[in-house]
Design goal:
The chain is an alpha/beta fold and about 150 residues long. The protein has a single domain, classed as Mannitol-specific EII, Chain A (3-Layer(aba) Sandwich). It has five helices and six strands. Strands 1, 2, 3, 4, 5 and 6 form a six-stranded mixed sheet that branches. The chain is globular, with a radius of gyration of 14 Å.
């Protein structure tokens, strides 16, 4: 799996709405990859959300999109202790967000990474640890062990 760096982790999201969340994750992506325009990232995520919510249920969402000009997969993680309404399949607020951005020409790696993220977050004990993690380092370690 693509490495999740500590710089790509937001332990407490400020967002209260889906749009605010997409903006916050897009800004995190821009911090990791300054050549990305946060608004371009947000629009890519929003375009994917219009197909169907990436809120998979169980307090999890995996917003993702493909971007021209990106040359590697990019991961960001965000956590909301209060939860954010995200039109998830179970209609419950989402607490854990993993954003995946991909270049246009990395379809196989993109799908493989989406699958790895999905398998990781299906593990109830991992979800509990992510919800309780006191540091970005702990979150990063949970992801790297699952790679």
């Amino acid at each position: 799996m693509t490495e999740l760096t500590e710089e790509g982790i937001i332990l407490e999201l400020q967002a209260r709405t889906k749009d605010e969340l997409l903006r916050e994750l897009a800004a995190a992506a821009q911090r990791l990859c300054p050549e990305l325009a946060a608004e371009t990232v947000r629009l890519s995520l929003l375009e994917r959300e219009q197909i169907g919510s990436t809120g998979v249920g169980g307090g999890i969402a995996i917003p993702h999109g493909k971007l021209p000009g990106l040359n590697t997969l990019l991961l960001c993680f965000g956590r909301s202790s209060r939860g954010i309404p995200f039109e998830a399949k179970d209609r419950l607020p989402v607490h854990l967000f993993v954003m995946l951005l991909s270049p246009l020409d990395m379809a196989a790696e993109y799908l493989q990474t989406l699958g790895q993220i999905s398998r990781l977050l299906k593990d109830e004990s991992i979800r509990a640890k992510l919800l309780q993690a006191a540091s970005a380092k702990t979150v990063q370690q949970l992801f790297s062990r699952a790679a």
